[in-house]
Amino acid sequence: MKKVAVLLGGCGVYDGTELHESVLALLEIAKAGASYQCFAPNIPQLHVVNHLTGEVVEQESRNVLVESARIARGEIKSVDELNIAEFDALIIPGGFGAAKNLCNFAVAGAEHQVEPSVKQFISQFADADKPVGFICISPVMIPQLYGQGVSGTIGSDTDTAAAFEQQGGQHKAASVHEIVVDEQHKVVSTPAYMLASDIVEAHSGISKLVVKVLQMA
């Protein structure tokens, strides 16, 4: 049985991991006969957002690992607990947490940096030549992790695509139903809610991504 690590960045689209994307990815992994283990960095969130109003809650702080445990039903590990030998692949859902907690793209744009513990975590899969699937906004981290010339997609947003290329990547525009595969680096990406208007559209690309990642594992 193939085993997939799933990297979360909190809980909730505006300040953490996108719930639909994460659940769809977990479901597709399980339906394919593989198993999964969720991970998250043990760090503070950038901020907390009231998902009813969309406003930042100034007086509240939360921990990314603790919040991610909500999605994982408590079955989650810190990124520093990874034993790379136990896993065949990695999948990273999106949501603003990927751009606020896993890296600081939401604040720094093209000058963003991947959070150090997250970079070390993902780099172990890259160094071991194990496939990684990036969903939604999480592909903005790809060039920094894989270097010049690596290809990926965030969909069709021109500013985000430009930032991707400014960091050395080759951005390929894709529809919500498509995946972009970099065979050399074993990187798969799909736009999901960067373009999806509903959960059915988000599922279309995510299901293809999971299948491809497991094929490459």
TrEMBL record:
It catalyses: glyoxal + H2O = glycolate + H(+). Keywords: Lyase. The keyword Lyase applies. Coiled coil: none annotated. InterPro entries: Class_I_gatase-like, ElbB. GO terms for molecular function: lyase activity. SUPFAM superfamilies: Class I glutamine amidotransferase-like. The keyword Lyase applies. Belongs to the peptidase C56 family. Displays glyoxalase activity, catalyzing the conversion of glyoxal to glycolate. This is Glyoxalase. It comes from Shewanella fidelis. The gene is elbB.
